[in-house]
Amino acid sequence: xxxxxxxxxxxxxxxxAGMRQFExxxxxxxxxxxxxxxxxxxxxxxxxxxxxxxKRFDFPRDILFVxxxxxxxxxxxLLKAWGLLLDKKAATLTLVGNGPLKDKLAFPADxxxxxxxxxxxxxxxxxxxxxxxxxxxxxxxxxxxxxxxAAGLPMIATSACGATTQFLINNYNGFVIEPNDVNxxxxxxxxILQMDAEILYTxxxxxxxxxxxxxxxxxxxxxxxxxx
Length: 228
Fold this sequence. Notes:
This protein has 10 helices and 8 strands. By secondary structure, the chain is an alpha/beta fold. The protein has 2 domains: about 1-40 and about 215-225, no CATH class; about 45-210, 3-Layer(aba) Sandwich (Rossmann fold), CATH 3.40.50. Strands 5-4-3-6-7-8 form a 6-stranded parallel β-sheet, with helices on both faces. Strands 1-2 form a two-stranded parallel sheet. Helix 4 (about 75-85) crosses helix 8 and helix 6 (about 145-150) packs across helix 9. It is globular, with a radius of gyration of 19 Å. The protein starts with a helix and ends with a helix. The mean pLDDT is about 95.
């Protein structure tokens, strides 16, 4: 921190991902008009191609996780919560990713494990999914929340994910839970699995609407606005 203040004279602006980073930049001494936003964007055009329709939420349902198989992503919490569910209605949990825990975890029969894949294939997975879940313990932003909001998915994520401030409103397009809260996550998952398709469809449309706040063009314009 001291080193940054000593060298701040070399920086005229700072580019931030969201509100938490904006507040941090202000604490570092940047004035409001010197803080640029946004820093990251999903490929809206790709994920917006996914049609929004109520049939996506028919039974059986599928919960989607995409991320590293690591403690910081809360994947062990997710598996414990999944094991607590009493009535899954033949639902499945799809885990996409790789990482240090992949070969150490035991996956039950109703959990499907896939390797990291292309953006196009992720979009196809999103279309076949009911809800995206990200139970991270620490996640300064989480671009995947933008991607799957753009895909029109209801979402469950922890308050540790910085992007929840932009793309997820509790009980509006999904549920915000606390990190490491197995029971809280299980409760949110159970709600999604039992929820009426019409409500999930409403959540879906709201996720898509929230995703429109940020785009690649806005990122480019933020940078170009200070290039002389």
